[in-house]
Amino acid sequence: MHAASVKAKVDDASVESLNSLEEQFKAALSITRARKTQLMMEFLKNLEEKEKLLREENQILASQLTKMEKKRLPETEGVRAMSSENSSGNSPPETLPLF
Fold first, then answer.
1. Is-above-0.70 flag for pTM?
2. Distance of alpha carbon 13 from alpha carbon 34, whole angstroms
3. Residues sharing a CB contact under 8 Å with residue 10, sequence separation 6 or more, in sequence order
4. Where in the chain are the domains?
């Protein structure tokens, strides 16, 4: 039993050795937290860079979309004008004779 042997060692340990062990744990915890903070800051920096790139890409795409819509607008107006010319007459649409 590993836990039992650890408990036996702790029971036999002196106060000084326990204090030393506690300080070692505190130091290790401090180092671990510092490393965790460093990694989180690097991760955050990477996310911010990705966000910046995505915003730039979004602006480019929005600009391209606007240009495409402006090019398409005259074509759409031409089609509308032709369809309104055809429908402006009051005569019914011509059909082919059945017989």
1. no
2. 30
3. 18
4. 16-79
